[in-house]
Amino acid sequence: MVREAVKLLNAGINFKDVLRGVHKSREIAIETLKTLRVEIENKPDLLYKIAYSSCENKRIARLISKIFELIGVNGYVDFEEYYSSETNVIYYNGFLLDRG
Asked: Read out DSSP for 77-96?
């Protein structure tokens, strides 16, 4: 979305028009994500969703379920792929501000 907005600005489109379009696009994206959201009602349901998301990898599913037990179902989990044979978990309590 941002790249396209920058392209439009570089093409000479009015900044306010581009900004209005970005705000409309943001609202559409948020509403679309809300329709795709799946509510998790209980722990077995959470474990099923985790197992499905981890492509039936039981080791990863157990690891993710332990993380969600720590942070709760409203928490946020971010995965990064490393080329290593070991799996590490880094747990942050509170807010984590990313760059940018």
From this structure: ------SSSS-------S--
Tally: H helices and E strands in the chain: 4, 0
Residue 49 vs residues 18, 28, 30, 64: alpha-carbon distances, Å: 38, 26, 22, 11
* pLDDT single digits (tens) 5-64: 889 999 999 999 999 999 999 999 999 988 988 777 777 777 777 777 777 777 777 788
Cα separation, 2 vs 23, whole angstroms: 11
Planar angle of CA 5, 100, 97, nearest 5 degrees: 135
Domain boundaries of the chain, sorted by first residue = 2-36, 40-100
pTM, two decimal places? 0.46
